[in-house]
Design brief:
Radius of gyration: 13 Å
CATH superfamily: NAD(P)-binding Rossmann-like Domain
Order of helices and strands: EHEHEHE
């Protein structure tokens, strides 16, 4: 089974990806930045990383992201930065 996790570099997303990998699942992740991803996740053979802002993807690109996935999980969180 392959699961698409959006927001995988956040606190909850990282934990979910780790759990899915522990269970032997394949994981696709879509993140805006790979900087905060652990090397173990970046280099894992069962992790397919797409670096993109999800809101900027075309319909065709979104279809590619969900292709062959049995589940899609959104782990979008809050941005605690306050703009004044």
């Amino acid at each position: 089974m392959t699961t698409l996790v959006v927001g995988a570099n956040g606190a909850i997303g990282k934990l979910l990806v780790e759990q899915l990998l522990t269970e032997g699942e394949k994981v696709k992740i879509t993140v805006r930045s790979t900087e905060s991803l652990q090397d173990a996740m970046k280099n894992h053979s069962r992790v397919d990383i797409t670096k993109a802002n999800l809101l900027d993807l075309s319909n065709a690109q979104l279809q590619t992201q969900v292709k062959d996935c049995c589940a899609v999980v959104s782990c979008f969180g809050h941005n605690h930065n306050v703009i004044e």
